Amino acid sequence: MGYNDRNSQGRQPNRNASRPPRQVTARPLPANYVDEAERVIRSLYDERNKISTNKIRNLLSLVSEIYNRENLRTADTISEESASGLIALRIRMVYEAGRDDAVKLFLERAQLLEYIKGLGDSRAKLMDFAHYMEALVAYHRFILHMKEG
Known about the structure:
The protein has helices at residues 33-46, 53-71, 80-99, 101-110, 112-118, 123-148. α1 runs antiparallel to α4 (101-110). The termini are far apart. The chain is mostly helical.
């Protein structure tokens, strides 16, 4: 690949740019979300397509802000502030996926956008989603450590 094969930021161009993005539809988070997190992370490592530790922890940080706000509440539905936070989270995830193919693949495999859409205004579902994100980060760290050792 020569100099002219890179975009203005020095990254390789997205080879799937001509393919339209798929429609994101709401999906419920599976009850076995910890097992699902392990499967997702192992599949990424098996294919050598891994999201960076910094990127995955930044996504967890955004989810944790919403989780911490809702963890103090007892209502069945999330607050307006948390609903706005979920919208901002979706936007940030899509933006990061547009910049980094590893993030895009991670979002697709983990079905994060689908699960966020499936939360609705349910506080309980939000709490489970936050735990799913924690499990993704935990398995990312665990498998990374195992590969290094």
